[in-house]
Design a protein that fits this description.
By secondary structure, the chain is mostly helical. It is 52% helix and 3% strand.
Amino acid sequence: MAASALLQSKLSSPPSNPFVRRAILDRVFFSQNSQPECRKRQGGFTAYFTHWYEEQCNDRIGEISTTTHSTLADIVCLVKDRNGEKESIRRQIKAILPNYSDESVEVLISLAARLWTMACIGEIKQCLTLGQTLIWRDGSLMQLLASTFTPNLATKEDVVLPKSFNAMSCEKVAGIRIHWTSNLLDHLKMTDEDQTVYIFHHAAFLDLHKQISSETFPAGFLEETISTLALLLPRNHRRVQAWYRRKASELGLDASASECKALSSSARRTVQFPYWGDRLSILKQAFDESEPRTLAQWWYDDRKRVQWYTFWVAVLALLLTVTLGAVQCAASIIQAWASVRALHQVPSSA
């Protein structure tokens, strides 16, 4: 079936068919991925549609629900144009859909912007929006994101990010809860008095934007965001890999998030992250200031090797002492019992 025919279904019908999903990706991203490449990225694309595309398009009511995926893809193409001013986009949509109300046109622009950027842009009724939201009033989408994601090039403390600093250790050692988010605006944001961190896991989406040389995001932003995933989900750390595979399987996350190119030692410094460095510094500080509170956290906490060995040697010594004490106590009880039994034993008559 032709791609154009596949996209004629309404937004009220989720694109669960893999052929429809691929048609949407090819139309929106102009990507011509080969079959092997599609299979390689299948998990990431599934996460994109399940956690974002369908979530944004579901529960639309009125004329929005009758809009086709093809029409929405056309609006995405208008939105992603680097010269696409908001007012110009409104006029073009009214020309395509003359019977749509101004409110519906605004919703379609917000939907298209969200699907293209994986960022909560615009306010949409009947849509549960968690986390940060951007309001796009005028100018182009490219200008909006440039004003939102601004690199911090000012002189600041250069924080080293050791290999022990990763997503698994944040959870298991520092007790920091991880909220896997599909809203790029919330990536690495900490909440709940620095007890929860949001991590954007859609590496396949970021890589697809890189592949088509997308100009929507500021220069270097995509590469740096992928580097934060390489930092937190290192591909050469077996325990982290096994831990994330379980998470991805349970929650339907993008499995390719843990397959990003490993970082060199010189790249593991906050000065190498002008966009995300501030948030990384806050996360690193919360990680450093945490102290193990349970035996499980002590077991995983290898930040201070000498302290780790000292603690477990002390635990082992305590266990040995308690065990030996219990054995000695048991032996004394048995010996006492045997003595009492011997004293009370009646001699047998001749």
